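re: the backbone from monday

yeah here it is again, tokenized this time
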């Protein structure tokens, strides 16, 4: 004898598996984004060691250096969102039949994704920014 709850569980199992797979892919993509942004910003900061050292030698404080490096990372976030948001909106037509309980043009979902992306990129950028504040002006000028 099959109960209605067993039938519902069986009927929705494919949707749950697909949702779990999509979530794992999203987390993996977010992790790759964080690693990539960290690498790019760390490389840029390393190449700008002399410039940052000069700025600190003429009186720049840690907050100004952090702001300088964070601006580069957040610029990447804005460019990524500006390119990705229209592509994501266009892709909703392809996955609209798989969405359950959420419309294809759900503004809250898109805003949440953009906010999470900005948060992750901010964290990934903060590490090289904090490291840049430890640059000694005398060492950088050599």
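seq for it, each position gets an aa:
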């Amino acid at each position: 004898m099959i109960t209605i709850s067993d039938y519902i569980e069986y009927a929705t199992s494919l949707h749950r598996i697909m949702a779990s797979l999509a979530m794992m892919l999203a987390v993996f993509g977010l992790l790759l984004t964080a690693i990539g942004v960290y690498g790019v910003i760390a490389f840029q900061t390393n190449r700008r060691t002399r410039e940052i050292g000069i700025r600190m030698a003429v009186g720049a404080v840690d907050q100004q250096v952090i702001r300088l490096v964070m601006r580069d990372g957040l610029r990447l976030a804005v460019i990524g969102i500006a390119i990705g948001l229209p592509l994501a909106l266009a892709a909703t037509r392809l996955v609209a039949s798989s969405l359950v309980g959420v419309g294809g043009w759900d503004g809250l979902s898109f805003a949440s994704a953009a906010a999470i992306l900005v948060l992750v990129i901010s964290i990934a950028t903060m590490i090289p920014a904090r490291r840049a504040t430890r640059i000694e002006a005398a060492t950088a000028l050599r």
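The CA atoms of residues 55 and 137 lie 8 Å apart. The chain has a mean pLDDT of 88.
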